[in-house]
Amino acid sequence: MKSNWRSYIDLTKPRVMVLVVLSGITALFLEGTAVSHPLDALLITLGIYLAGGSANALNQYFEREIDARMSRTRNRRPLPLGNIEPPNALSFAIIIGLASIALFGLGYNSLSALLALGTIIFYGFFYTLWLKPNTDQNIVIGGAAGAMAPLIAWAAASGSLAIAPAILFLIVFIWTPPHFWALALYFKDDYRKVGLPMLPIARGEKSTLNQIFFYTIALFAVSLALLAVSAGPIYAIAAILLGGIFVKKAYSAKSKKSRELQWALFGYSIVYLFGLFFAMIIDSFI
């Protein structure tokens, strides 16, 4: 039973959801609900996890045959391993997705419910079934789904949207391509095997590294835009230091074309986003 529950949790991609949830929690600290109404913050965070988990479970359901052929996924994901039957995975995805929409719609407001619904449909269906297999810009456009948590959180807490969560959205949105393309470079043989037109396959390593460098510079600039809205000195220092290191690592990967540097860039991209969000949270108390 424990193993079975673990398999269902794995359908939600919990490691991916840690960053998604953190971005939503950060928005709640900036907005104030995380401190003034912690129970609401907890419920909103749960709703975000259910919405993202539903989208991820749909993604795994539709890509189960592709995942079974890729070395990165075939021994890690529950459907290729045979731990869950496909109809059960689909039912699970639908149930937790409906639970998220109901939580936001009945407990908070229609805006947050619509944003959650849009996230599930966009990633679970549009990205998975159309974008990913048909365009090398799949992760650029599809990254919008993974960046929605701050907007959903802010909408649920306040009933409206604002510039601060929009900047958080942009930070995650622009962060996603260099993060994922670094991973795609490392596992490009996997993507070539299954015929997915990821950028390293469609445009080559040089073009991908150039794009990573461009997006990293854009990310650095967008991260500084938060200083004009609702960030303080801790965030300013973190954004400059962490962003500068990110740009330097992207340039090194671009110049030296080393698999080790590409993998290190992928790992640092996670550290970067964690550091940036924690700096925002700390600043919200100052």
Give the % helix: over 70%
Annotation, overall tally of beta strands: 0
CATH architecture of the largest domain: Orthogonal Bundle
**Cα separation of the termini:** 46 Å
Structure description:
This protein has 286 residues and is an all-alpha fold. The protein has two domains: 1-159, Tetracycline Repressor, domain 2, CATH 1.10.357; 162-286, Four Helix Bundle (Hemerythrin (Met), subunit A), CATH 1.20.120. Helix content is 84%, strand content 0%. It has 16 helices and no strands. It has helices at 2-11, 14-31, 33-36, 38-62, 64-69, 78-81, 86-107, 110-134, 138-146, 149-158, 163-186, 188-194, 199-202, 205-225, 233-256, 259-284. Helix 11 (163-186) runs antiparallel to helix 14 (205-225) and helix 15 (233-256) runs antiparallel to helix 16. The chain is globular. The mean pLDDT is 95.
Entry summary:
The protein is mainly alpha-helical.
Descriptive key words:
16 helices, 2 domains, about 290 residues, mainly alpha, Four Helix Bundle (Hemerythrin (Met), subunit A), about 0% strand, Tetracycline Repressor, domain 2
Give the helices and strands, then pairings.
Elements: H1 2-11, H2 14-31, H3 33-36, H4 38-62, H5 64-69, H6 78-81, H7 86-107, H8 110-134, H9 138-146, H10 149-158, H11 163-186, H12 188-194, H13 199-202, H14 205-225, H15 233-256, H16 259-284
Helix pairs in contact: 2-4, 2-10, 2-16, 4-7, 4-8, 4-10, 7-8, 8-9, 8-10, 9-11, 10-11, 11-14, 11-16, 14-15, 15-16
